[in-house]
Every structure is written in C-alpha cells, then in structure tokens.
Amino acid sequence: MGNEKSDVLHGSLALMVLRTLDTLGPQHGWGIARRIEQISGDALALNQGTLYPALLRMEQMGWISSKWGASDNNRRARFYAITRTGKKQLATEAENWERVAEILGRFLRPAAESS
Amino acid sequence: MTWLRVFWRRLAAVRRAEDLERDLDDELDFHLQMEIAENLRRGMHPDEARLAALGRFGGLSQIKETYRETRGLPMIQTCWQDIRYGFRMLGRNPGFSFLAILCLTLGIGAITSVGSWIEGILLRPFPLVAHQDRMVALTGTDANGRTDVSWPDLQDLRRNATLFDAFIAEHIGGTTLSIGDRAERTLGSVVSANYFDALGIHPILGRTFEPSEDTGHNAHPVAVISYTAWKDRYKSDPAIVGKKQRLNGIQHTIVGVMPEGFFGTFVGYGFQFWVPASMEDNFEGGGFKLENRGAQWCEGFALLKPRVAIEQAQAELSAIAGRLAADYPDTNRGRGFKLYPLWQTPFNGAGTMLPTLRISLVVACLVLLIACANVGNLLLVRAFSRRHEMTVRLSLGAGRVRLLRQLLTEGLILSIAAAGGGLLLAYWCRNLIKLLFPVSPGVMVNLPADMDLRVLALSAGVCLIATVLFALVPAMQAGKIDLAAAMKSESGGVVGGRGRTSVRSILVLVQVSLSFLLLVGTGLLLKSLRAMQDTDVGFTTQGVLGTSVDMVSAGYDGPRIRNFQDQLLSRIETFGGVESAVWARTAPFSYRSYPSAGIAVDGFVLQPGEQPVLEYNEVGPGYLATVGIPLLSGRDIAIGDDETALPVAVVNETMVRRFWRGEDPVGKRLQVKGRWLRVVGVAKDAKYASLLETAKPFFYTPLRQGPVGGQNLFIRTRLGAEKIVAALAHEVKAIDSNLAPAEVITMRDQVDRMSWSRRAAVDLLAIFCAIALLLAGIGMYGVMSYAVSQSARELALRMALGADAPQLLRMVISHGMGLTLVGVVIGGTAGLVLTRLMGNLLYKVSPRDPESFGVAFLVMMVAALSACLLPAWRAARTDPMSALRQS
To answer: What is the SS3 assignment for B887?
Structure first.
C-alpha cells in the first residue's frame, strides 16, 4: 500500500540528493535536508529522518561516498559527496524524470482542454 | 553487478555492526543538534526547539530500524540467530541431540554404504573403463542354459553385428608366478587383442595387444601386466618392457604395463596379467580352440553403439545365432547368445553379490525408515515438553513465522549433523564389503566401492524431510494453542491415553514391525546357513586336506610331472598320521571348472539332436577312498590303471540311473571323446562344485590315462593342516627348490569358501538387524518414559487410591507390550509376504519357517520389555504426595 508511494519518493529523493551534492559539493545529512526543503519550499512534507536510509542505500549503490569530517561549527559530521557513477546516474535519472514529466504533462493537457 | 556490490557492502556492514551503530548514533545526533541550533536561532525556547527538531525528524527508532535493515543482511542475521539458538537448545538436551543424530547417522550411513557398494560393484564395477553405461555381458546359451562362447562364433558376431562398437572375449586363468623363492598363485586373464582398446585403457608403459596376436596356437607369448604387479613384483622397473616372465611354463615377453587402478573386468578380483587369445591353450589346456566352433571358452563383453537398447542388440544377436545354426548345424544347432546388463553379469562376482546386495538395499532402507521414525519420535517427545516454552514465547509476541523458522532450523541442524556423520560412516564402510569376500592367498580382492554421493543426497533428503516434518509439530501445536488455557495448566495425560500419544504410538508400531521383519529375515538366513553347513556334500570334509603344487608354471613336462607326483606321494606316506594321499586334476568346490566331454553309452538311445555332455574328474589311485566318497559297486581307480592298461572309469549313481536305467554298469562300456572306457565301479553321488547343485551325472577317470596334469593334492590325515604344512613344504622343496605348495586347507574350508555370499548376507543382515533393534528399543523407551512422565498425576492418584507399585509396574509394561504385540502382528504379516523375496538366499528353509518367526518374536518381546522396564520402574516409584503437589 505505502510501497509505491515510497518508491516514487525514494526515486525522487535520490534524484534530489544527487542534484544537491552535484551543485553544492560535499554536504552533511542535515545540509542536504535543508537544501531539499528550501528548494521544494517545504511542499514536500518529508520526515527528515527518512533521508538517512536513503543516503545509505545510495552509498551502497556507489552513487555517493561518505567521509567523516569537521562541520562549520567544528563538530564531527559525516559528509556525503557525489561519485562518478552518481553523476552518470544523475544524468540518466534527470533525463528519465523529464521525459516522464513531459509525457504526464501531455496526458493531463487534453484532459484539461476537454473539461 | 550492482547487486553484488550492494551485497558485499551489506555483508561487510554485518561484520562491523557495532562501529556502524555508533556512527549512526553520532550522525543522527549531529543532525538533531543542528536542527535544534537552527530552531534556537529562530527564537524558540530550548525545550520547544528540541521537540520541534524531533518532530521534524520523524520516529527516531523506526528510522534507525529501517537504517539497520538497509545496512546489514537482516535475513542472514536472523538466520544466524536461529542457528545459534538452535545449537543452544540442542546443547541443553545433549542426550536427546546425541540420540537423534546417532539414529539418523546410522540410517544415512547404512543406506549410503549399501548404495556405494551397489554403484561400485554392480553399476560401474570397473575402474577406469570408459563407457560402462554401454557395456553389456555376453554369454552363449543352449538347451541347458548358459554356456561360454566359441572363438569362431565371436568372430562371426564381430563381422555381422551392426549395433555394436566392439566385442571382447576374456577367460580367467591363473598361474604360479615365482620370483626367487617366492611362489604365489596369481590371477590373470586370456583376452582378445582388442580388449584394452575397447575398454579405453591405455598402457603407461609399452603397448597392448595387436590384432595378429589373436591368431595361432600358443604363437604369441606376450603379456601385459597390472600396475600392482609392476610395482610389487618388478619393483617398478622402468625398463620392464621386453623382459621375460615364465607364465604357465612358457616364457612370455612383457609388452605393456596398465595404469594404476585398472584391475580387469572381473567383479571381485583384481587381475595381475593379461595374455592374448592365442595363448588360451597354455592357460586352459584341452587343445587349440581358436578354430573350433564347438569349443566354448570365452566369457564376453560387448560395447553397444550409443543409444542402442539392449533388447535391440539382443534381437540382432539372436538373428545371427539363427543363421549360424543353419550354417553350422553340427555345432550350433540349439545354440544362441544372450546379453546381460553389467549388474547381472552371470560369470563373475556380480552374479554372486547380487542377492546379497539386493537384500542389503532393502534392509538398509528399512533401517533408514526406522531411524526416521525414531527421530520423529524423539522430536515429538521434545515438542510436547516444549509446549510451555512455545506458549510463553507466543504470548510474549513472537511471530509464528519466526517460531516456525526457529524449529525448522533446529531440524536442519540435526539433519546436517547426521548427514555428515552418515557420510563419515559410509566412508569407513565403503570397503567393508571386501571383508565379506573369501580370502585366499595370492588372489587380490578388488571391489571398487566408491562413495556414492547420489545415494547420500537421497538419504539425507529423506532424513531432512522427516526431521523437518517432525520438528514442525511443536509449531503446529503452537498454532493451536489457546494461550490462556495453556498457560494455566500444563497437566498431564493418562498412560496409554489417546490423542497426543497416538502419532507416537504409530511411530513405535512402525519401528517394532520393521525390526521384527529384519529379525525374521536374519533368522531365516541363519537357519539357511546352518542347513547348508549340515548339508551332506558326499565326501569327508574333516580330516581331508587339499592343496596344490603348480608344476606347469615351473616348466615341468609330462614325465617330470609324473615323477614329481610319485616322489612326493611316497614321501608324504612316511609322515606319521597320514592315511593316504592322492593327486587329481580338479579340486571339488574350487573356482576352476571340471573338464567336460561328450559321451555315449552302449544301448542308450539318444533323442534327435541330443548330445549328452558330462563333467568328470581325472584322479589318482585311491581317490574315492582318500576323499571319502563311498563306493557302491566295483572298485576305485587303482594303481594299475595307467597308460599301458585298459582305459577305465568310475561313474556315479545319477549317471547309472540316467544311462543304464539303474542296472549295475560294472563291466559295461562308456565312450568318452570317442574313446571306449570300461566302467569298473559306481560311486555314491556327491556335491561337486556347489552346495546348491542338484544331483548330476558325473564320472572319474584315471589321471594316468588322461593328458598330463593333475596338480591338486589331497591328503587324508588325522593331523591338522598346520601340522602338515611345514613338512609338506619341506618335502616339496627337497625334491625341487623351484616348487612350493599352495595353501593347505581342509575340505570343510574349501566348501565354506564357495558359500561365502550367503554368509556375507547373514553378516550384513545381522549387523543391520542389531542396529534396527537398538533403534526400536530407543523409540520404545522414549515413548514409555514420556508417557510415564506425563501421567505422573494419574499414577499418583492411583497410588493414593490404593494401587501398589507392582500394579503400576504391570500397567506401564502391559501398555508397552500391547504396542509391541500389535507391531509384531503387522511385521509378521508383512514378513509372510516379504520373506519370499529372499528367494535363492534361503536354503532348505521355508520363508514361513515358524521357528524363525518364533525366535524373532521372543527377541522382540525381550527388547521391548527391557525398553519399558526403566520407565515402569520409575512409575512404580512415584511419590504420590510430591507428584500431586507438583501438578
């Protein structure tokens, strides 16, 4: 039941994370969460915690890598960076996403006209 | 390959779980601290900032749990937990675990061993030989049954048969090989030149035989030797090829050495040398046979073309046999050919082993069944005693699936441990069957019983299913448990009560009936063996010793042989305690067959196409008296019956009945191989080669009136073999230091050696039977002691109401005995039907022999009684007060 929804979410979440790391460079989890919230304008009512299993999965897939380092306020934090595979994945995913969005858009437009 | 990378990372994470857990805590804590700091910056109150951050984050423990599941391999980790828990549970009940594993090990070990024997002896009997799946055995047939094949017939098969890749001929032959002062009997084989090529065996040194070596009379004295012979006898001489070795009196050139592990194609024995067909007469005697269509001497094998069924091939051979009968009516009328799958090969050890192995297989299956029933029983006992544990775990919220998996894991551990044990057992036992073979010096026993993994897999599978099935019972029970009710009372049942004990009673019934069946089978075989032991062989078995001196191998010719025979006899007669001694061509009950000849009798009218061929023996003067065959009329072969005297014969009773209609034939004429002999005596019938043979016509002719030979020596003496051996060896050496006597054994031993397959069957069955009885006893004990422990309250009540200890004892025992009786009835009924399968292993014993059934019954009852005794005693000692208080 909740599965498909979270799958879509996972897919888009990964895309958002990859995009964030690609543009901003290495970030810790909180930074990524903040960025996603900023961009989505808080429209994505997402528990911040769900980000972490997603990060782990992406790291297992080899899209991102992580390293412990010091944060701005000098605390020990885990920084994530996009890898080469991750960049490739980002490119394909982004392209996919646009295509899907376009197709969906085409679907929705005539429906809007006919009503 | 992404999934592989993911898998490895997860696996790595499993091993570093503790570190990673700390990292996770740190990371999430950092996140929350950042969020709180941010909230504070927005002007929130510290408490409020903290709550908001947590709310924003979502359920911390759920997130962590999801994270952990993603990080590691939850399936494997819980499995690992199950396994560890399983081991702990099994370790907590070491007695139970030990018994269960022991039972299964015995069951799996038994059937895997037998499977390996069958695979190694019957299905793929010849190590290194290629295409054994296409190999079939070939014999001739005539009106009386199986015969060997003649060489010209074999050549016609080669020329005319289209469905075969090759025909090979072989004939077992032996020689005494002497090197230095060592003289030993050695087995070899006369083979067709294509033998090694057809079998796909390549020599490690030199060559095999060439087609031209199949022709001529003793024209090609060449030999191929086995690896063992090369290593032991010739000290691995790298320049062996081209060297000479005297075999049966003729110098042979060694042309090749076979690879290690090739022992020839005779189930049960390993051959040391091979010579080409042209040397047949040198090993077998009786004249040159390669151009004689009437002389049948080859045992054959054929290699079918791929995808040819044995029936097709048989049809083709039968057609060829028909044509041969038309072309050569004198020799081939009424003759045919017959093919056998390798495991039915009639002319080597396979045929002798077949009934034994068949019985062993059935019995091993029974043992496995009993073992499974037993383990089922043990697991069920435990299942009931663990009901409480299951209830508690369920009520504490354990998932039923998890419980199920837990129990399955325990069952799996048991099965796997037992399969390992069974494998080990089978490995030790793989060559055990060799021990059952008769041992005679110089003859190498070779039974290539390799571990059969397919059988192991099968039997382990059966055990696995059984174990898992019974391991699941507590789970099924758990499924039905009414938590509240079960928690409240864990009360016991009633001795022999229905319900939960019914499954277990059935299992005990199965065990008792199967064990009873095995007991009956063992009893029948033992009785057969005794009957055979008591069979009158028609000659003296005690007080007559047999041995042989191989003079032909030492290069003796006719006059020297006779000279030696006379010299040795006169020396033996000076031994104290020796009554008489005599030479003969063939020894009774030996592997070597008697010579045979076509005969004719004055006044005996032949049916059209009938040509009686009888077996006979050539014997020295006083043979019948020495060996102890009673003379019914006329006289024994005497000293005067030599080459200068009138040819004579002594015939047996059956021959008199058949050819002279029972009238005394003394003084009448008998034609043998075209020569007329005068019958001078009638001997009582005897067994000649086997205890099972029926009375057959047989006659004796004087050794001195036949072709030169006769290397078997019989000595009638009051002394034991051990007293004679040294003196005999000394005298033989004194006459000629190149000679040595073979093993000296009593005729009793000689007879026993020929009936070894029955003894092997008895030994095997007795072992299996003991195992089965043990298992059944364990099962019975388990059921009874469980019943007693579960009915403690009932027993206590009875006691409180005035029952005394003997009454309780009787009650428990009678319950056990009742179970046993029912089992015996079932087993007995099955036995009446099944024992008939033992067929020719039984000798002079009815498959329904009441004595065997009776004894089996008694043994079963005693075993059951002793299994019940301890639980019954415990029941009788019930202390009513404490038992009642406990429940």
So the answer is: coil
Those of residues 67-106 in A touching chain B at CB distance below 8 A are 68, 71, 73, 75-78
With a threshold of 0.90, tell me whether the complex ipTM lies above it: no
pLDDT in tens, B818-852: 888 998 999 888 888 877 777 666 777 888 888 88
What distance in Å separates the CA atoms of residue B297 and residue B329, rounded to the nearest whole number?
Answer: 19
Report whether B158 contacts B286 (CB < 8 A): no
The pLDDT-based confidence of A3 (bands split at 50, 70, 90) is very low
Based on the number of CB atoms within 10 Å of its own CB, is B438 exposed (0-12), middle (13-18) or buried (19 or more)? Answer: middle
Measured between CA atoms, the residue of chain A closest to residue B59 is A49
Q: Which residues in chain A have Cβ-Cβ distances shorter than 8 Å to B30?
A: 28-30, 71, 75-78
Q: Is the predicted pLDDT of residue A44 greater than 70, yes or no?
A: no
Partners of residue A78 in chain B, C-beta under 8 Å: 23, 26-27, 30
Q: State whether A47 and B58 contact (CB < 8 Å).
A: yes
Q: Tell which residue, B871, B101, B639, has the closest CA to residue B417.
A: B101
Give the position of tokens 């028609």: B538
* Residues 6 or more apart whose Cβ sits within 8 Å of residue B570: none
Nearest CA in chain B to A54: B67
Amino acid identity for residue A113 in this structure = E
Same domain, yes or no, for B476 and B362?
yes
Residues of A whose CB is below 8 A from B6: 60-61
* SS3 track for B23-85: HHHHHHHHHHHHHHHHHHHCCCCHHHHHHHHHHHHCCHHHHHHHHHHHHCCHHHHHHHHHHHH
Question: What is the rounded distance in angstroms from the CA atom of residue A76 to the CA atom of residue B242?
Answer: 86
Interface contact A35, partner B, CB < 8 A: no
Does residue B401 share a domain with residue B287?
no
| Location of structure tokens 């209609």 | B661
* Count of domains observed in chain B: 5
What whole-number distance in Å separates Cα of residue B635 and Cα of residue B641?
Answer: 11
Whether B726 and B821 map to the same domain: the answer is: no
Min Cα separation B23/chain A (Å)? 9
Same domain, B115 and B186: no
φ, ψ at B498 (rounded to 5°): -80, -170
Amino acid B473: pLDDT: 66
* pLDDT of amino acid B682: 95
- Gap between the Cα atoms of B685 and B700, Å rounded: 12
Tell me which H or E stretch contains A47: none
At A78 the pLDDT is 92
* Most B-contacting residue of A42, A44, A47 (CB-CB within 10 A), to test interface: A47
3-state secondary structure of B450: coil
B341, part of any domain: no
Contact B679, B665 (CB under 8 A): yes
Q: Which of B333, B359, B394 is the last residue of a domain?
A: B333
List residues bridging with B169 in a β-sheet.
B300
Of A47, A115, A6, A7, nearest to B58 (Cα)? A47
- The pTM (predicted TM-score) of the whole model is 0.69
Q: Which residues in chain B show pLDDT less than 50?
A: 180-182, 486-499
| Structural domain of B57 | 2-72
* CATH number of the domain enclosing A21: 1.10.10.10
User: Angle at Cα B573 formed by Cα B569 and Cα B578, nearest 5°?
Assistant: 120
- Cβ proximity of B468 and B415 under 8 Å: yes
